[in-house]
Write a structure and sequence with these properties.
Helix content is 20%, strand content 45%. It has 108 residues and is α+β, with helices and mostly antiparallel strands. The chain has a single domain (2-97), classed as Roll (Nuclear Transport Factor 2, Chain: A). It has a six-stranded mixed β-sheet. A hairpin with a 2-residue loop joins strand 1 and strand 2 (7-9). The radius of gyration is 15 Å and the shape is globular.
Length: 108
């Protein structure tokens, strides 16, 4: 089970569909692990996803803009398999970088 902002993917096929939608939107997608901590059956990963918006994403037409999005996931592992993942990422910042939402002021 994959839990993300506004989306849930059930089973390997659900996860693959979600992953494919981001690969279609950002064909040059590169994910860099910035930090990772494991304890017991849990693994927490802080990572950065980078890519150029070349395909539709959530109804947003390709913008050609390059974005870097910070993400965090918490996975539950058993028998070497990910059973459940909770992922959070800067969705607001991503859509602002794509130019589809106004940017926040630099200082508040």
């Amino acid at each position: 089970m994959w839990h993300g902002p506004g989306v849930e993917g059930k089973g390997p096929e659900g996860w693959k569909q979600i992953a494919q939608s981001y690969r279609d939107a950002f064909p040059d997608l590169v994910v860099t692990i910035d930090d990772q901590i494991a304890e017991g059956d849990r693994v927490c990963t802080r990572f950065t996803a980078r890519g150029t918006h070349r395909g539709e994403l959530s109804g947003v037409a390709p913008t050609g803009r390059y974005v870097a999005v910070r993400c965090v996931s918490l996975d539950r592992i058993a028998d070497g398999k990910i059973l459940e993942e909770h992922e959070l990422f800067d969705e607001l910042g991503m859509f602002q970088a794509l130019g589809t939402l106004p940017a926040l002021p630099a200082s508040v």
